[in-house]
Amino acid sequence: MVDAGSFTGAAQQLQVTQPTVSRAVQRLEAALNVRLLDRSTRHLSLTPEGRAFHTDLREAYAQLDQAIDRLQSSSSLRVGFCWLMPEQFSRFIRRFTEEAGIDCEFLRDDTTAAGLHRGHTDVALLRGIPEGVPLTTIPLWQERRVAAVSRSSPLARREHVDWAELADWPLVMNTVSGTTSPELWPAGHRPRTSVTCSNFDEWLEAVAADQGMGTVPELASRRTSHPSVVYVPLRDAPTVQVSLALPERSAHPLAEPLVAAVMREFC
């Protein structure tokens, strides 16, 4: 539920109903005799006890998965990403794995750590660093942002938009794998969040339905088209940091040569 951003998102990932997830959390809280979730706010959040418990469990599960994977095979590299893998990085990974004589698998994982925290991926390309996940990160490059607006929006007819102007428009916010939040604007002049979602596809449909505007890395304007969405260049917008991430412990056997190759290629 924490990684998915909501009971509904967790239910979708687990392929069960939302009430099933809700009852499972309630049974866990009853068994532990502690409240793990704060349900008093508009959005669910972890209590202090819940955050500590979640961190401990996440590390334990990741170590278990990684131990099993090492026993099975180390002849492949699983590369995680949330959405839109940049071409230059996928080419680099394919070249690296070919030279190392191992297989390469690209895995989309719509969580903040792109599967690293659960041991589902060995390395990941991240836009933003998740809190509470023990990772080693290497900054690679900065991506420029563009605004994404509905074709019916007045902004769709603009040649460009200033970043400060967007504070006056409602924001569609991807709370799991997105790169934009109201905190990127100065306090006192920030956009109102009109819709929250947990993945890029939901975000795109909300923008298309004119439920608000959003901002994304410029790569989206070249790779993701929608008949009802227009991408508009932004001026004075903060860039998006793209980083390579690896687990701090129990890293893939090729982690050290991979990092060295990444440093030569991008840094």
Average the pLDDT over all residues and give the rounded result.
90
Q: SSE order in H/E notation?
A: HHEEHEHEEEEEEEHEHEEH
Number of helices: 7
Spatial extent as radius of gyration: 20 Å
Q: In percent, how helical is the residue content?
A: 25-40%
Terminus-to-terminus distance: 36 Å
- Uncertain runs are none
Number of domains: 2
How large a portion of the residues is in β-strands, by DSSP E?
15-25%
Q: Describe the largest sheet.
A: 5 strands, mixed
What this model shows, in words?
It is a single chain. The protein has 267 residues and is of the alpha/beta class. It has 2 domains: 47-141 and 242-266, D-Maltodextrin-Binding Protein, domain 2 (3-Layer(aba) Sandwich), CATH 3.40.190; 145-238, Periplasmic binding protein-like II (D-Maltodextrin-Binding Protein, domain 2). The chain contains 7 helices and 13 strands. It has helices spanning 7-14, 18-32, 48-72, 87-100, 200-208, 219-223, 255-266, and strands spanning 37-38, 45-46, 76-81, 103-108, 123-127, 135-143, 145-150, 161-162, 171-174, 193-197, 214-217, 229-235, 240-247. The strands form 4 sheets. Strands 4-3-5-13-6 form a 5-stranded mixed β-sheet, with helices on one face. Strands 8-12-7-11 form a 4-stranded mixed β-sheet. A hairpin with a 6-residue loop joins strand 1 and strand 2. Helix 1 packs across helix 2 (18-32). The radius of gyration is 20 Å and the shape is globular. The mean pLDDT is 90.
